C-alpha cells in the first residue's frame, strides 16, 4: 500500500511541475473601435436609434394602433404564432380569467365563428392531452401579438422554403 501511495505522490509532483512554470499566457489586447460613417463609434452602435446620438435621450415613436379588420395575416416565418386580428384592449388575461377563451376555446369557437386554439395548447410538457388549456399556454400574449399599423424597424429577409424552391426551379 505504501508503494502505491509513494508512486501516486511522485506522479502528482511530476504532473504539477510540468503544468507550472513556463511562460505566462499572452495578453489579449482589444482592438481599437472602428470609426463609422459619421466619424464617431458611439453613434454607429445602433441604427434603431434613428440617427440620434447615444448620449441623447431619444423621443419615443407614437404607439401603434391596433388594426381591427378581423383578417388573418400570413406568417413571416415557420412556426410563428398567429397574430391577433382585433383589438384586445380591456381583455382580462390573468390567473383567474382569460377573456380570449370566451371565443377561442374548443367549446365556443363555432358559436363565435372564431378560430379554435391549436390542439397543442391542450398538451402538457409530457405531451399528454388535458381537458383544459395547459397552464404553460394559458397566457396568450406571451406568444401572440395584436396586428398593428407599425412599420418594421428592421427589414425581414425571410424566404419560405416554397419560395426558395420556386426560384431554384426558375433558374
Overview features:
171 residues, mainly alpha, Flavocytochrome C3, Chain A, domain 2, 4 helices, 22% helix
The helix-and-strand class reads: mainly alpha
Question: What is the global morphology?
Answer: extended
The ordered H/E elements are HHHH
- Which CATH class of the domain at 61-171 applies here? Mainly Alpha
Write down the CATH topology of the domain at 61-171: Flavocytochrome C3, Chain A, domain 2
What does this structure look like?
The protein has helices at 2-19, 100-104, 109-112, 161-170. The termini are far apart. The longest helix is centred in the first third of the chain and has 18 residues, at 2-19. It has 171 residues and is mostly helical. The chain is extended, with a radius of gyration of 29 Å. The chain has a domain at 61-171: Flavocytochrome C3, Chain A (Flavocytochrome C3, Chain A, domain 2, Orthogonal Bundle). It contains four helices and no strands. Residues 28-33 have low confidence and may be disordered. This is Periplasmic nitrate reductase, electron transfer subunit. It is found in: Periplasm. Keywords: Electron transport, Heme, Iron, Metal-binding, Periplasm, Signal, Transport. One of its GO terms (molecular function) is metal ion binding. Its main location: periplasm.
Mind sketching the topology for me?
Layout: H1 2-19, H2 100-104, H3 109-112, H4 161-170
Question: Summary?
Answer:
The chain is mainly alpha-helical and 171 residues long. 22% of the residues lie in helices and 0% in strands.
